[in-house]
## 1
Amino acid sequence: MAPQKRGTRLDQFQSGAKPQGEEGSDPPAEGGGQARRAPQGPSFVTVSELTDLIEEDLQQDERLASVWVKGEVSGIREYPKAWYFTLKDAQAQINCVCWNYGASREVGPSLKEGAEVLARGDVTVYKQRGQYQLRVAEVQSTDKRGALFLKFEQTKKKLEAEGLFDESKKRPLPRFPATVGVVTSTEGAVLRDIINVISRRFPHVRILVAPSKVQGEGAEHEVIRGLKALADFGGVDVVIVARGGGSIEDLWPFNEEALARAVRASPIPVVSAVGHQTDFTICDFAADLRAPTPSAAAEIVVPNAEDVFAEFQAHEGRLRRALLHTRDRAAGRLERLTHHPALRLPRTLLEARQQMLDEVADRLRANSRMALERAQGRLERQLAALDVLSPLKTLARGYAIALDGAGRVVKSAAGVAVGDTVDVLLTDGELGVRVQSKKARRLSRPDDA
Amino acid sequence: MAEKKGREAAGDEAEELSFEAALKRLEEVVADLEGGRLALEDSLARFEEGMRLSKLCQEKLKGVELKIEKLVAEGGRTVPRPLDEDD
C-alpha cells in the first residue's frame, strides 16, 4: 500500500479540520491519510484513515495537551484497569477515562459523583467508537475544602517520594526522659491533659513548654520556632507537638510542608499528637512517632513510675537470687569434692597406716620387753651356771687343775708321760709335780649342765 | 540536686554515670550474674555493684520532682519561666 497522495479532497479535509495545516509538509498528509480514487467517482479515505487523521490532529494541538477542564463529574464507572466518567457543564459534556496506573492511579478513587472539579488531561481518540475523550491524569476539587484535601495529598505524596516519612528515619524515644518539651498552645485543654498525665504517671521530669499558636494563618511558623527554641535550649530529650481536634482548616498548619521538614530536621525525637484519633496530618507522618491524642502522647513519652520502681526491685531480686545460686553452686561443688574418693582416700590411707604404726609400736614395745626379760633370765641362768662351773669354785671344793709344760690343761692321763713335769693349780697356789706313775681310771663328771 | 545526692551515695565509680547509663550497666550486671560463669568473689563484687546501681538509679529518679516551665523570650534570649497557673 504505497502512499499515493492525491491532493484535492484530502487537502480540503485538512484545511477544514485544521486551520493551520496549510503546509503540505504536515505529518497527517505525509504518513497517515492515503486518498484513493474509486474507478468512477471521487477520491476517498477509509474510516480508519480518517480517524487516524483526526487523532493525529488532536495530538498535534498543544491547546489540547495537558489541559485543565472544569466540569461536574457524573456517571462514574469503575473497571479493573480504568475509571470512566463524564465531565459536563450546562452546554456540553466529554467522556473521560482515568487509567488505574501511573500518576493517575489515585484519581479514580477520589472521584465523587456530582462534584465540580478541575481535571487535567490530554484529549485522545477512542477509535472503535469514534469518540474523543479526556484522558485524565489529575483531578482537583474546586471548592476550598476539596482544594485542601488535594493539597494534603500532594504534599504527602511529594514528601513521601523524598523519603521524609521513611521508617528508617524514625528515631527511638528515650526510655527515661529527664526533660520533655511540649510545643502547643498554653490555652485550652491540650497542655493541661499532657501535664496531668505526666504528673500522675511519672512526676520525675521537667516539662518545658514552647508556647505556640496552633491554629490560623502562619501558626506553623510558631510551631517551627517552638521546635527550634527547644532544640537550642538544650537538654530536652523528647518533644511533643500537640493540638486538639478540629476541622481540616483548623489543623491545616500541621499539614504545611515547612512544618513537616522542621519536624524531620529536629535534633530531638518528635511525637506528633494533632487532632483526634482519626485525624492524620503531614506532621504525623514526618514525626518519629504519631500519638492518637495529646494524652496518649504523654503516656508514650514517660514510663509509669510504679513500673519503673518495680523493675528495680525485680533487678535486685534477680541479683540476690543469682548470687545465692552462685554461692549454693560453689558450696555444692566443695561438698562433692570433699567427698570425692580422690580426697577421701589419702586420709583413709593415712589413718590406716597410723593404726598399723601404732600396732607395730605396741608389738615392738611388748616384744622388746619380753626379749629383754628373756635375755636377762638367760643371763642370770648362765651366770648361775658359770658360778657353778667356775674353776675357782671347783678348786675351792678341793679339785686341782693340771697344766702341762705348754700350759695346756691336762684332761687325760694319756696327755702326760711318766717323768713329765706338771703344774698343779690349787685354790691358793700351784705345785710343780713330777709324774711318777699312770693308771687308767674312769671318773664321772660332777656337773653335766 | 538529685544528681548530687546520687553521686555522694554511689562514690567515684558511678559519678560519671547518667541514669540511663547506670540502668544499662545494672542490666548488664544482672545478666552477668545470672549467666553463672563468674567466680564466687567476682559474683559478690558484681552483686554489690548491681545493688549500688539500683539504689543509685532510684535515688536519681526520686530526687527529681516534677517541674513545669515555659520558654519565654527575654532580652533576645529564650529563658525558662514557671508556667503560670492561669496559663
## 2
Amino acid sequence: MGFAAPLFLLGLAALVIPFLLLFTKASSSRITQFSSVEFLRTITEHASRTMEWKRLLLLAVRVLAILTLAAAFALPFTSRSCRLSLWGAGPAKNVVIFLDNSLSMSAEEKNSSLLDQARSRAEAVVRENADQGAAFSVYTFHKKVRPVMTDEEDVSKVLAGLGEIKASEAASDFGLLIQFLTRQFGQKPALPEEIWVFSDFSMPSDGPMKLMEDYQRQTDPLRTLHWIPVRPLSFQNFWPREMVLPPRPFLRQARENLTVLFDSRGYEPGAEVKLDLWVENTKTASRMAVITESGKGSVTFEHTFPAGGRYPIRIESPEDSLVRDNRLHAIAEVGQPLELLVVEEGVYEYPFQNPYYYVSQALESFGGVAGRDSWVDMARIPSISLRDLQLEDYDVIMVADNAKLEVRDLAQLRAYLEGGGSVIFALGPAFSERNGGDALAHFLGGKLGAPQTAERETSSFSLSGIDYRHRLLGVFEEGRQGDLSRVPFRSFVPFTQEADKAGEVILWFESRWPALVEKKEGSGKLFLWTSSLNQEWTSFPKDPLYVPFIFELLKYAAFGASVSDAQLHPGDNVVFDSGREAPAFEQVMVRSPKGEQVTLFGEDGAPPPPYALETAGVFEWVGVRGKEMVRQLAVCNTDAAESAPFYAALETLGVNDSKAGEEDNRAPESSQRRFFYRPFFYLLAGLLLLEAWLANRFYKPQWV
Amino acid sequence: MTQTEQSRKFLDPRTISMLSDYRLLSRLIVDGFFLGHHRGPRNAFSLEYNKHRDYYPGDPLKLVDWKLYGKTDRYFVRQYEEETNLQAWLVMDISKSMAYQGEKGAVSKMQYASYLAAALAYLLLDQRDLVGMIQFDDKPRKVILPSSRKNQLNLILKELQGMQEGAVSQFEEAARFAASRIKKRGMVILFSDLLAKPEQIERTLKLFVCQGNDLLLFHVLTHEELRFPFRKFGFFQDLETRERVLLHPEYLHDEYTGHIKEYLEKVKQICSKLKVSYQMLETTAPYDKALAAFLKLRSRLN
C-alpha cells in the first residue's frame, strides 16, 4: 500500500489532540471540596470503572477518526506489486526500466542506433536480475511516458517487449520523466526497487542530470537508481534526419525556424563555428554560431517548406572538433503562422467599435491567435503607419471601416495585391464617398454610393440567393453552421462595379446589391464587404455565424487548403482514417480548441477509437504510425445555439467522451494504482457519528 | 404573618446563623419551637411522698413525721420518692468532614449541629437536667462533665461557639473513648455525619447503647451530600484526607443518590435494631424536627 499524497499523513500529528484534551482537561478541571471522597469512591466504585472504559472507548474512537482522516486525505492505494508482496508470493524485487525512445536515440553509432545500444544494455540488466526472481516494468519515454509492461516476471516477455520498442519522432522531456517518477514511484516501495534509465540525455543543459541527482537524493534506501547515458560519438548522426512540419490551415507553404543548440569543447568564447543545414540531401543554408563563455552555441535557420510534408534534414559542421566533442543538442521547432495585418482608423471611443476587436475575438475562438502553435499572428496598425511597413511580410491585410486611407496608401495596397497578397476591405459608418473619393473607387474597381439604411428600426436587410457551392460558403450549406440569410443588416454601401473590372459577387443582399465581392488584382485578391465588420451596421458579429464566416473568409483569402472535416457537429465522432492501404495509426493525439490534449492508442493493429467532438471549434489531430506523423484538422460546427443542448446534455449526464482516449493512455491495469480512500471517508463519517453519539451518551454536553 | 409563622423563622438555620450570641440563639430556637404549643417548656418537678416507715436510729430527725408521732406516739419517718435529674451528654463529631457546608447550605454541618446542641443544652439545663458535652474527631477533644449548675450553660455555649473542625474522623475509636467517659446512664445525643461504613456505625452506636443510655442520633448531612447536584466534570477533594477523585458527577448522579438512599436505609435499620432514636437532618432544614425528636425521647424517658 502506498499513499498518493503522503504529506497529509502529517495530519497524524493531530493524534495528540485527544490526549492533550483529555489530560489538559483533567488537569485544569475544577476542584470541588467534598466531605468524604472515601465515601464517594466506595459508592461510585463501580460507576467509575464503567466511566473509565467509556472514556477509553471514546478516546479510541477519536484516535481512530483522526487516523482515518489522515489516511483518507493521503489517498491510499495499492498496486499489484504491493498485493503480491503482501500475500507473500511476490517477486524478490522490482526492476523498473525506462528507455528513452526520443528521436535523438535513433542516431546511429557503429552501425547500431543509440536505442539499440540502450536496448541491449537494458536486456543485460533483465538477464542479470532474472535469476533473482525480479518483476520487471518497462517504460518508454520521450514527450510522454508510456508503459510497455509492468510487473512482468516472465523474462522472455520482457525481452520481447524491449525488442519492440521503436524510436519516436518526439524530443525527450526529462521534466516529465521526473514528474512521472515522483508521481508513480514517489512513495516508499513495498519491495526493494531498482530503476534504470537509459537515455542519451540530449538536452542543451545539465538540467536533466541535475534533476536526476536531486531525485536520487530524495529517494529512500530501498530504491536504487541507475542513470545510464547512452551517448553518440559522432556529431552528424546526432541530429534528426527527418523533420515533420505541422500543417498550416491557411498556407500552402510555411517558413520554419530551426534553432540548434550545442555544446562545444576546445573553443574560445567568441569563436565562430559554421553549421550547415541540409534538406533532402541538399545543403540549403549555412550559419555561423558564436560560442558563448559557457561553451554553448546556438544558431537559427529559416527555411520555407511546403506545409504538412516530411523532409529529411541534417545539420553538419565542417569543424572536426565540434563534431567529435559536441555533447548536447536540441532542435526547436517554431511554426510560421499566418500573418494578418489589420489597418485600423486609429481613433475609437470604445474598443468594441473597433472591427479588430470582433475579428480577433472570432479567431481566438479557434485558438488561433494565442499560444506557441497559433495559426494566426495578428497585428494592428493605424492607417498612418501603413506606409512604413513591408506589406509583403503579411499574408492577408484587412482594412475595416477606415476613412483615413490616402492615395499613396491605396497605391501601396494595390502593389501588395499585385504581388500576390490578399486584402479584405470592409466598410462602415466612418466611411463615406467623400472620404474615399475617386481614388478609393478606382482601387475598388467600382462606385460606392451613399449608405442605405433600413427605414424602420425593426426592418433590416438580409442576404439572399446564397450560392453554397462557392468554396467560401460551402460550410454553411444546408444550414449546418446556421442560416446566413437570417443575419440582419441595418446598413450597407451600394457598390456598382465597373464593367471592365467586375469581380465575382459571392454574397448578395435581397435588394440585389452586392454584400461580398471578390476581385482579382494581379496575383492577389481583393475582397469588399459592403457592410461593417463591427456592430455599427449589423448584429452579425454577435451571431455565432460570424466566427466561421471570418475563419472561412481568412482561409479563403489566404489560399488556404480546404478542411475535409468541416461538416462535423458536436457529438460527432472523428474517425482517424489512415488511408486506403496504409496501416492504421498506432496512436493519435487530438488537441481541442481549448488546448486540451488527448492521446488515443490503437491496439493490436486496430486503429485508435473514434474521438467524439464535444465542443465547437477546430480540432487538430496528429496520427502517429511508426516514425510517420500525419496532421489533420477536424472543424466542428460553431453554431452555439445548435450546440448548447449538446453541452447541457453532456454536463447533465457527466459524460465526457474525450476521457475514453485518456483511459487508453493509462498504464495497464496491473500497474495502475487502486485507490481506496472512499472506504476511509465512509469509515470516518461513521466514526464521527459514533463519537458524537458516545459523547452525548456518556458526557452529555461535556467534552473530555 | 401569624405568631407561629414568626416564631418558625427562628428555627431556620439561615436566620439563626446571623446571630453570634449562642445564648440568645439557643433561646430563640427553643422559644420559637414552643411558641404556639399547649405545653409549656418548663416542666416542674418535686419530691413526692411515697410511704412511711419506722424510724431507725440514725435517720435524720428532720424526716420524722411529728404529726403522726402526736397521734400514734410512735416514730415514723416520711419516705419520698426521689425524682432524679436526667444526665444528658451532647456528643459532637467535629471531624473535618463536619466542616463541609456545601454550595446551597447557609451553615456547615458543624455549625448546624452546634446551634442545635446549644438549644438542647439550654432546654435541658432549664429543666435542671445535667448536661455534659464531648467533642471528638480522631479522639475526644473537649469533655465537659455533666452538671446542672447555672454556669454550665455558659460553659457549654462557649465551647460550642469556639468549636473548630478537628482532624480526620476516627469515628469508632473516638466514640469508644467518649463512651467510656459516660459513667452514669442517661441520655446521649450524638451529632455526626456518620461518614463511616455501616458496620463501624453499628459498633459505635452499640458502645453507647450497651451502657444503658438512651441514644438520640442526629445524622447531619448537607443538601449536596444527599442530592449530589454537581454537574461539572472535575476533581472532588476529600476535606479530611485531601485526596482527589476525578469523576463526572452528572453521570454518577443517579448511582450516587441510589447509594445514599441505600446507606441511609442501612443506618436507619441499625438504629431501629439498637433502639436508637434516629433523626436525619439536612443543614437547610429548620430545627423543629430535631427538637420534636428530642422531646419525644425526653417524654419517653420521663
## 3
Amino acid sequence: MRIAVCVKQIPDPATPYDLDPVSHRVVRPNDQVLDDTDRFGVEVGLQLAEANEGTVTLFSMSPSGSLQGIRQALAMGADKAVIIDDENLAGSDALTTSKVLAAAIEREGFDLIIAGTESTDGYTGVVPQQIAELVDVPSLTFARKVETTNGGIRIEQQTAGGYDVVEAPLPTLLSVTSGVVEPRYPTFKGIMQAKKKPIDTLTAENLGFSADQVGDAAAGQTITSVEPIPAREAGEIVEDDGEGYLKIVALLEQVKVI
Amino acid sequence: MTTTWVFSEESEGHAPASALELLTKARSFGDVAVFHIGAGSDEAFAELGDHGATSVYHLTTDEHLPAAAAAAAFATLLEEHAAELVLFGMGNTDRDVAGRLSARIDRPVLANMVDVSLDGGTVRATSEILGGVQAVVTEVTAPAPALVIVRPKAFPAEPAGGAVPPVTAVAMPDVGRSGSAVVTESHVEASEGPDLEAASIVVSGGRGVGGQDKWSVIEGLASELDAAVGATRAVIDAGWVPARLQVGQTGKTIKPDVYIAAGVSGAMQHLVGMKDSGTIIAINKDPDAPIFSVADLGIVGDLHQVVPKLTEALQAR
Ligand SMILES: Cc1cc2nc3c(=O)[nH]c(=O)nc-3n(C[C@H](O)[C@H](O)[C@H](O)COP(=O)(O)OP(=O)(O)OC[C@H]3O[C@@H](n4cnc5c(N)ncnc54)[C@H](O)[C@@H]3O)c2cc1C
Ligand SMILES: Nc1ncnc2c1ncn2[C@@H]1O[C@H](COP(=O)(O)O)[C@@H](O)[C@H]1O
C-alpha cells in the first residue's frame, strides 16, 4: 500500500510569531517544527504500512528551512519525503496548497492519502477535502479510529453527537483527529536513519504550475485590514485564602444565576 | 436568480443551527436560497423559511457519504443562478462540501469567519486571530461565487416569520469513485444534563483536574448549578470525556451567561470558543495562566480546594 502523508512544517507555536506589516503574512523562521496535528497522521500511516506491507511518503509544501520538522517525521519511520519549496509559492492560499500537494502526490502514485483535520497555524481545515476532490477520491474526514478492510479503509468518523462508521475502497483520503493514535517518539536509531532517507525537492514548475498560477498571484483574496479587537475589561484576580469560593458565590448572585 | 446561498444539512428532522444563523445574516443581503441535503422534513423547510430562505433546493441523500455528490450538485446550481456568495457552517459535512466545491469550481474558500458582508458584488469577511486579539478583514478578489465558512454563533438565529419556501428537488449526480464511501453505522453517544451549546451556565475542566477519576469535581459543580459540562482538548485527547464536550477552535463555540473554567490554561484555541461568554470565572493555580486575561473573576488556587467548597456552599443554600 502506497501511503502519502501530508505534513506541514510550522513555526514553533511555543514562540510568538510575527506578521509582516505589509504582506500580513506570517514571518517564517528558518527553524520550523512538525505541526503537532500531523504527528497523528504520520503514526496512522506507519501503523497501516506495518500491517499492509506499505510505504510511507511525506508530502510538504513550505519553505523547507532547516528541514527539522520533516526530519522529525522521517525519524518516526517514514520512508521518504517530497518537499515542494519555491519562492513563487509564498502567499499561496489553501486551494493552491491543495493543488500543489495533489499534483505532487499524483506524480508519485498513491493508494491512500492521510492528512490532519486542521493545521495549527492555518486551520482552514479544507486542504484534505480539496486534495480529495482534485485527485477524485472520497474524503473520509475526522477519523478517530482507522482500520483496513479487504481492499479498503474503515474509519470511525467523529460527528456532533457521536460517531459514524464509514467505509471506502482504495484509493481514498482520510483526515485524522488528534487522539486517533498515540504518536511514537523517534528512537536514536530512527534519528540516525532519518539522515540518510531520501528527500526530493520540487518546484511549482516541476509540477506544471506557472508563476501566475500559484502564490499571492493566484490567491483570489486579499487582506484589507488588521485591527486590534478591544480587550475585555480586566477582571478581579485574587489569591485563594481558603475563602475564594465565597467570591464566586457572590458573583453568581450578582449576575442572578443563583 | 438568487445571489446568496446557504448550505444546510438536516439533523434529526430539523434545519441545523448553523443554517438558521447564516440565514438571519444573509437575508439582509436580499433573497436567499438554501441548498438543503438530507431526508427533507417539512419541519426543516418551515424552519428555513421562517429564518429567511426564499427558496430551497433539496438533495435527498442515501447511505453514501454525501459530500462529493453534494458538491457536484451544488456547483451546478450556483452556476445556473450566477451566485455571488455561498455560506457554510463548521459541521463536518459543511467543511467537506465547501472544500470539495472549492476545488471543483476553482474558487478559494475563506474559513473560520465571524462576519461577512456583500456589498455591490464585493464579498468581505472577518476572522479573529491570536485567540481573538486581532480582527482581520479579507476581501475576495476571485470571480464569484465567494465561498465562506462561518464559525458557529457568529450571528444569532432570529425567526423573521417567513412562509414555507418553494422546494425544488435536486437530482443526485453520479460522481464515480469520489462518491464511493458508504456510511455503514451511526452511533449517538448518550448525553446527560443540559446541552452544551444551549446551557446558560457551563462548567469546564482542563488537564489541571488531574485525571478521569477526579473529573467528578467538575460534574458535581455542574449538576449543582444545572450547568452543562465542557472540557479542553487536552481532556478529550486524554480520553476522560467524550469529544462532544470540547470547547474551542475545533470544538464548540459557546456564549453562556456564565462560564466557569477550572484547571484550564486558556490556550488561544480554547479562548476562541468561549471568550464571548457573559461572565467568565477562572480557577487556576498559576497566576500567569492566560485564562485570567479574559476572566471577570479569577481565583488563583488549587481547584480541588476551591471547587468542592463552592459546590458545598451552593448545596447549603
Ligand atoms: C489545531 C489545534 C486546535 C485546537 N483546538 C482546541 C480546542 O478546540 N479546544 C481546546 O481546549 N484546545 C484546543 N487545542 C489545544 C490547546 O492548544 C491547548 O493545548 C489545550 O487547550 C490545553 O488544555 P488545558 O488547558 O486543559 O491543559 P494545560 O494547558 O495543560 O493547562 C492545565 C492548567 O491547569 C492548571 N492546573 C494544574 N493543576 C491545577 C490545580 N490543582 N488547580 C488549579 N489549576 C491547576 C495549570 O496551571 C494549567 O494552567 C488545539 C490545538 C491545536 C494545535
Ligand atoms: N503546506 C502544507 N504541506 C503539507 N500538508 C499540508 C499543508 N497545509 C495543509 N496540509 C495538510 O492539511 C491538513 C489541514 O490543513 P489546513 O487546511 O491548513 O487546516 C494539515 O493537517 C496537513 O496534513
